[in-house]
Design a protein that fits this description.
The chain is mainly β and about 160 residues long. It is about 0% helix and about 60% strand.
Length: about 160
């Protein structure tokens, strides 16, 4: 559509014919008038609400049609292929490695103050106490989570070797 610069008129070039289209926008509704010649006019009223569109089509002869459409996502839901800690149990002060991989994700984040991460990867953590980490993978198709826990135990007293 190209604007002709004259009071809200747009020109629609459908290949076979060129038609003027007049329209207004009010709130979440668009009203379009398409003059067909000979005094005939088709009016389209389309109202948008979230993922739904409702519309009516009226012509100057009194014919009316209505429609409703709902947008659905054809995007694949993300998949968390793996999320694990290694080792899963450490003594206080030691480190563990979190590793993960995902498919069909647009973004990945880990809680506990870690934040946004690559779609697949690994990082070292040194929790002071037993901690459960939650990985969230998100895409236009939705979000999924996976969890892994690093168990932290206190370091016991050192044993001295007994001399004979």
């Amino acid at each position: 559509m190209l604007s002709d610069g004259f009071g809200g008129c747009y020109v629609v070039d459908s290949g076979d014919e060129v038609l003027p289209l007049y329209g207004t926008l009010s709130g979440n509704s668009v009203t379009l008038d398409l003059p067909l010649g000979g005094g005939a006019i088709i009016e389209f009223v389309v109202t948008f609400s979230g993922d739904a569109v409702d519309g009516t089509v009226n012509d100057s002869y009194g014919d009316t049609a209505s429609f409703t459409a709902t947008r659905t996502s054809s995007a694949a839901a993300p998949v968390i292929d793996a999320f694990a800690s290694s080792p899963s149990a450490i003594v206080n002060g030691a480190a563990a490695m979190l590793s993960w991989s995902s498919s069909d994700a647009a973004s990945v984040s880990i809680d506990q103050g870690i934040g946004s991460q690559p779609l697949s990867g690994s990082l070292t953590v040194t929790p002071a106490e037993t901690t459960t980490y939650t990985l969230t993978a998100t895409s236009p198709g939705g979000s999924v989570i996976a969890q892994t826990t690093v168990t932290v135990s206190r370091q016991g007293p050192r044993r001295r070797a007994v001399r004979p």
